[in-house]
Amino acid sequence: MWGILGVFVHWKNVVLLRDVLVGLILVLCGANYYDALSGWTGVCLGVGGFLAEVILRVFRRVRKREVD
What we know:
The protein is mostly helical. The chain has one domain (4-64). Helices cover 75% and strands 0% of the residues. The chain is built from 2 helices and no strands. The protein has helices at residues 11-32, 36-64. Helix 1 packs antiparallel against helix 2 (36-64). The chain is elongated.
């Protein structure tokens, strides 16, 4: 998938970025309307998207190394 400025972006990164952004919007809406369910859903989406990105990057780095 081609991203902004013609840079190739993997579809997993696009999905995880979308999850983090939707989580941020839900947190802000939950705080604005005093709705705990949407706020906590946003927190979980944001943290989950961030952790999934970190785990995928670590897995890619570990996988590139050859075993002696």
